[in-house]
Amino acid sequence: MTVKNNSTALKGPSLPEEARLVDQAKSGNAEAFAKLYDAYVERVSRYVYFRVSEDCDVEDLVSQVFLKAWENLERYKMGSSPFAAWLYTIARNLVIDHYRTKKDTLSLEDVLALPADMELPDEQAQTRFDLEALRDALQFLTPDQQQALILKYIAGLPNENIARVMNKQEGTVRGLQMRGLQTLAKYMKEKD
């Protein structure tokens, strides 16, 4: 999986456009769902990437997220939460299920492994280094702090949506983010 540094990749369709696409997809229009997929696949991939350790698992889980979304599209209610938040909820549940069913243990090298296709020019090498350092640092946080920071800074969700995905109050989410950032800052200071 390649993680792009492209801010436009994190922007989904406008709310009216998203609503239109969801309505069309609910009516069985696969092309409309494909547009939703294209709009959100990178964001969901980034989220899953920082939650699981195996790249092949990332691809499988992202595929499962969109398959479950397609199969359960009738359950999604416009206005109750943004479509992206609904996708993150599905992704979160699949990641939890993934770890519940995973029986073997992973080595630290496996946890920190990054895709080989990112090793190209200097910019991609720096991105790889930064992602590896971030993955390493995230291991020192609680699972809730990891989730809150990944949803905020990797997926780009506002705190209101993060609270919905995590089933917590916004104040709790802000507290998790603050304590997580403090722990990361302490870790990075000690590492230097």
The portion of residues forming beta strands comes to under 5%
Tell me the Rg in angstroms: 17 Å
Biggest sheet layout: none
The portion of residues assigned to helices is 55-70%
User: Count of DSSP E strands?
Assistant: 0
Return residue spans where pLDDT drops below 50 for at least 5 consecutive residues: 1-9, 116-120
Folded structure, characterized:
With 192 residues, the protein is mostly helical. It has helices at residues 15-26, 30-49, 55-71, 83-101, 108-112, 122-138, 143-154, 159-166, 170-191. α1 crosses α2 and α4 (83-101) crosses α8 (159-166). The protein is globular, with a radius of gyration of 17 Å. Residues 1-9 and 116-120 have low confidence and may be disordered.
Task: Write a brief caption for the model.
The protein is an all-alpha fold and 192 residues long. The protein contains nine helices and no strands.
Record keyword descriptors for this entry.
192 residues, disordered N terminus, mainly alpha, single chain, 9 helices, globular
Describe how the helices and strands are arranged.
Blueprint: H1 15-26, H2 30-49, H3 55-71, H4 83-101, H5 108-112, H6 122-138, H7 143-154, H8 159-166, H9 170-191
Helix pairs in contact: 1-2, 2-3, 2-4, 3-4, 4-8, 7-9, 8-9
